Amino acid sequence: MLNISVIIPVYNAAQFLEKSVQSALHFDEVKEILLIEDKSTDNSLEICEKLASGNSRIKLFQHHDKGNHGAGASRNLGIEKATGNFIAFLDADDYYLPNRFEADKEIFRDPAIDGVFGAIGVEYLTEKGRQEFQAKFKDIPLTTVNYPAEGEEVFRGLLSLTPKIFGTFFHLNALTIKKSAIEKYNLRFNENLRVHQDSDFNIKLSYFCHLKSGIIDKAVAIRGVHDNNRITKIIQYSPEYNERQFILWQSLYHWAVTNNLPSEYRKRIYLSFKSFDLSQQKGLRKYFNIVWEVIKNYEILRTRYRYNYYKS
């Protein structure tokens, strides 16, 4: 049987937290639930303390200074404190479905598999949240990939290097990973990224580790969409969106160079990074640099980020 540590970063999630925790307690495979409280301004800490005192499988941690450090740092603290052989993640306003670890139990029988990922669904908790989510993501019922894949195909798919469109994202809520694989490659969340730490982590994880898709045609967890979801507040291709994407791809490019990834991968990551770099420039300098970049790397016009070039 799997022995899983579920890591839940907690920040201002008082109204959702108990449901989230209860959904993880449902599974015998879950050895422990690590609540990483990140200096909430509501009564989340009080609820965490109540939950931890009432069940030995629930453990409460805060940062060394009891300050607010963000979701990435909170997940990193959870990884350090986890004692299970496997790690799973859950956002405090989301919850697992009964089939969450159904595929994992079978797939992990193969010792070559380091991690399994699946699909998540959506539940609209407020009308404003629904409107913002659908304005950005349309009425997409699942966050998932388009076809089963494993190994290097997953990494190539996330970089849009596969012949078929793989999809650009799988959610942490549907990822289970061996702790030994995380430790082997010293993988952690980039704490400088206040958003998109998950995308950064998933891409790096899929390069070093042998991941395999599990249940991708139906949800294994549910994302709760409400008024305070940060990711839906950012309008696509807005200056804020471009800036945050730039920081993400800058992080990935630095990682690709530092780890001397094969040239095909470094180039694709560079093109994505450069696209968002150019999107933040203005005036004649911007258009001069666009022309110069196209002369050097005409393939940049084929990336899914080419739209950014022409936004002022």
From TrEMBL:
Pfam families the record matches: Glycos_transf_2
Coiled-coil parts of chain: none
Gene3D superfamilies: Spore Coat Polysaccharide Biosynthesis Protein SpsA, Chain A (3.90.550.10)
Domain of life, source organism: Bacteria
Keyword field contains Glycosyltransferase: yes
Keyword Thylakoid annotated: no
Protein name: Glycosyltransferase involved in cell wall bisynthesis
Organism this protein belongs to: Chryseobacterium taeanense
Biological classification of the source: Bacteria, Pseudomonadati, Bacteroidota, Flavobacteriia, Flavobacteriales
